Fold these 2 entries.
Entry 1:
Amino acid sequence: MPEKLLVLQRFDSPLGQMVMVARNNHIYRIDFETLSYQPFDSKALERKGLRIVEQETEVLAEAQRQLEEYFGGKRFEFDLPLAPEGTTFQQQAWQALREIPYGETRSYQQQAERLGDARFARAVGHANGRNPISIIVPCHRVLGKNGKLTGFASGVDKKAKLLELETRYRPFTLE
């Protein structure tokens, strides 16, 4: 039976305070705390039989370390155990996000094509909007078909800053 305890830890990133949550030693959620909605509705958690405590754990400390390296331009891929909750389609969309290389972008249509049908672009956008693990599952790397910055739960300004950071630190490769 899965653990009914969520462990929360906060840390200050260059783009504002972030909240990280683990469940069963896996990353369950990472978001900026300044979201316009309450990501941790205690009543909803109670209805699911979950409770939340704020403390540091090994997996959350490692997530913070990797995120700090990312913000410092020293990490281009993450190596953390993830356990986001979502539908089968959402899980597939989030996996496709993890395949977008650091410093590159895709359109929602390209992501939908990757999932098998370009007509799913709108559904992909909805799935990305419900991505519970910001940055590590890089929904900020997905743009509108016309290249415009659209849709990011933490705000398009943060999306732009994350893309700027990745452009600045993108590793040099010979092609």
Entry 2:
Amino acid sequence: MRATALRAVGGAATETITEDIHTTIRLHRAGWRTVYHNEVLARGLAADDAAQYQLQRNRWGTGAMQVLRVENPLTVPGLTIGQRLGYTATLLGWFDSWRTLGFLVLPPLVLVTGQIPILADGMIFAVAFGVTYGLQQAALYLLGRGAYRPLMSIVFDLVRMSSNFLATMTLFTSRTPAFRVTPKGRIATDRGRIQAPVFLRATLGASFIGAAVYLGHLLGIITIGYAAEWAAGVFSWLGVNAGLVWVAMRRIRSIRFAAERRNAVRFAVDIPGAVDGSVASVQDVSVGGALIATSEPLVERETHLLSFELADRGTSLWARIRSSRRAASGEHHYAFEFEPGQYPAKGVLARAVFVGRYAVAGVERHAWSELLRREIGSLSYRFQSRARIEAEGPVVPVPG
């Protein structure tokens, strides 16, 4: 960004908590041009768990609502038609939470009341919906260039629904929100499950009520005059919604995605190294420590000298062993924590791992179909285990 451009609009916009998009609107209003620079210039840390993710989304959404009040791109002068459409689509996109909430609430409402929002032939509606939804998915797949994952996109719509919805409500209030920074780095002292949002728990409960009412209608226990012959389709829709909400809640509460106790993100590097001059393999590394594999156990001492053979140069740091274990392969794995200070060597290591395109250690990417099978399989196993316990009785440990 040119300093002259920033000075021309009075500096960075500080009236809202999303100063980046707000400042850019003012630059465009003043006639300055922006271009897309297709190169990674910096790397940073994303939200580490569901709580941080929702906090971040709430802040961004709240800032978007502030921009709509302070500098609405539809009404302020100086923007082109394309810029108005682009900014408006971005800022109003936070209202997708209202759509998501509507999709979740509608099926149980229909099943409980018998009323439907659309009076149309079932086949005509199914064709119209199928074509529209199919075109949306095709567009997302093509624009995603292979990165679009349909199931996970819906799951994360549900994960951020509560925070986005609460953020949009600030559009109708005059209270100035506080700027809450998203905690960065893996610094949790106690790694545990977090509570699923009230919105998700409430919609799942509503789905169970809707399902119970419809099943009661089928069994003749209660009578509901449905306005159309769509009840079975709505019941199926409710089942799909409940399954997706369950997956989203499992994702939020999963220990796998909980905050880490480590003080820095680890990168899986698999590079040669050494411990006190003996050959070793570096499995992962962070700015705070490293995981080293050796063929023979290390001689115990207070500190060890770790050497790393990086792509452009090598570096060495003193470190202490925090934990160790014997791998199934027979290797000895040691978790090291670097000694305080040593900033020049840590700087060399940090630049190497952040620029080196290394994957974050412990992160695996699974196809959406595999995720769905895993979630359904886990639920099935729970019911099987419960049924087995009821049939055979609990296992009683034998003393000695």
